[in-house]
Specification:
alpha/beta; single chain; UDP-n-acetylglucosamine1-carboxyvinyl-transferase, Chain; 2 domains; Enolpyruvate_Tfrase_dom; 24 strands; EC 2.5.1.7
Length: 426
């Protein structure tokens, strides 16, 4: 079982390069299924989730090859050879390991007329339903049944329609747009998610021959086409990794240039850091975040983009816990996302949870202790907390962190942190 040993005290200082976004790359990989032939995706992060999605694609009959790009901050080039007739089944062993495997559902049913994808089940950050994926595909004309733990979708040819999402779900928007690109006629998705990863996916789909308008707004219009072509495409930089470095710089009172960080993808988060007392500069190809002295507590409310990202909420709680004053952190996207707070409390944080609110009273430093990473972002938040602790914090179960942060330890060390990967017996 791999752990990180994080020795507190260092300021994060220097430059760090951010490669492509996990939450985009996984969907771009699924989108490649829409066209037979070889697609190439650049700036794909070298993380466990990409390995799992590569396995999903291999089992569907694709050839997948990955090559690291030196000096890219943990990114690389992925080639996907999609057969003329992919197979259409994705097993539970893969979906269970990574829920984003469900994003092959839309492309498969659109291109092959059927798909059999295991149901993902629960998740450590909430129940995460699929109702909007299912009802949207049904409106497009698919018949969907749930049987023996699988979702089975069939549709000889999908037909364009109008779909209103109850909530701007990222995954449902992506699945429905990927299905609609090969449907007959026009599909309008209203109350669509507006995340930069949606814009990225739509850009790749357009480069493959799709006709899409409104990506990045709440109304996405897709005019179906008969076929798509393979593509060469570069993944958008990871705003959550960039945001993690930004918050880490503030927590450790450091000075970090985040190369390829896109300030417009993090407007609310960076404004919060400015309010906490940090210097934030948008550079031509990145963001600089510097902090002198102890940060001030700021309230945070997570919301769909362009709101404060739920994926940075654990880092926001960790930041507030070492700031002056009291912060109210409100989680609106995932009901179970405060679970990791118990771990932060083990480090001496003063946090009280009431429903989807956390009241955080700042303390000068954390007090080191062994803690468990409960999901990707909670793990990253605990590592940042460890950097502000008075000794050596052992973060356990870091396989979660490996799912989302390429070269995390090396990058932290490059910024001057004292962090090591170690192993404990199971
Ligand atoms: C994606 C991201 C995740 C991020 C989240 C919100 C990936 C791989 N993951 O997750 O990191 O935190 O967006 O920005 O891209 N919901 C339903 N029914 C549905 C779909 C969603 O009830 O059919 C609910 C979920 O339970 C959750 C909320 O809607 O409470 C948001 O989920 P969604 O935006 O779909 O997140 P994901 O796409 O799963």
């Amino acid at each position: 079982m791999d752990c990180f040993e994080v020795t507190g005290g260092a300021r994060l200082q220097g430059r760090v390069r951010v490669t492509g976004a996990k939450n985009s790359a996984l969907k771009l990989m699924a989108a490649a299924l829409l066209a037979p032939g070889r697609s190439t995706i650049h700036e794909v992060p070298d993380i466990l989730d990409v390995t799992i999605m590569s396995e999903v694609l291999r089992r569907l009959g694709c050839g997948v090859a990955y090559e690291r790009t030196p000096g890219s901050g943990g990114g690389g080039r992925l080639t996907i050879d999609v057969p003329d007739k992919p197979s259409t089944e994705t097993d539970y062993d893969l979906v269970r390991r990574m829920r984003a495997s469900i994003s092959v559902l839309g492309p498969l049913v659109a291109r092959c007329g059927s798909a059999r994808v295991a149901l993902p089940g629960g998740d450590a950050i909430g129940s995460r339903g699929l109702d909007m994926h299912i009802s949207g595909l049904e409106r497009l004309g698919a018949t969907i049944i749930s049987e023996h733990g699988f979702l089975i979708a069939t549709a000889p040819r999908l037909t364009g329609t109008s779909i209103w999402l109850d909530f701007p779900s990222v995954g449902a928007t992506e699945n429905l747009v990927m299905a609609a690109v090969l449907a007959q006629g026009t599909t309008v998705v209203d109350n669509a998610a507006r995340e930069p990863e949606i814009v990225d996916l739509c850009r790749m789909l357009v480069a493959m021959g799709a006709r899409i308008e409104g990506a990045g707004t709440s109304t996405i219009t897709v005019e179906g086409v008969d076929s798509m072509s393979p593509v060469e495409y570069t993944t958008v930089p990871d705003r959550i990794v960039a945001g993690t470095w930004a918050i880490g710089a503030v927590m450790t009172r450091g000075d970090v240039v985040i190369e390829r960080g896109v300030a417009e993808h993090l407007t609310v988060a960076l404004d919060k850091l400015t309010d906490s007392g940090a210097t934030v500069e948008a550079l031509p190809d990145g963001i600089r975040v510097a902090m002198d002295g102890r940060p001030r507590c700021v309230d945070v409310v997570t919301l769909p983009f362009p709101g404060f990202p739920t994926d940075l909420q654990p880092m926001a709680v960790a930041l507030a816990a070492v700031s002056t004053g009291t912060a109210l952190i409100t989680e609106n996207v995932f009901e179970g996302r405060f679970m990791f707070v118990n771990e932060l409390v083990r480090l001496g944080a003063d946090v009280r949870i009431d429903g989807h609110h956390a009241v955080v009273r700042g303390r000068e430093r954390f007090s080191s202790a062994p803690v468990l990473a409960t999901d990707i972002r909670a793990g990253a938040g605990l590592v940042l907390a460890g950097l502000c602790s008075d000794g050596v914090t052992e973060v356990q179960e870091v396989h979660h962190v490996d799912r989302g942060y390429p070269d995390f330890v090396d990058q932290l060390r490059g910024l001057g942190a004292d962090v090591r990967r170690t192993q404990r017996p199971d």
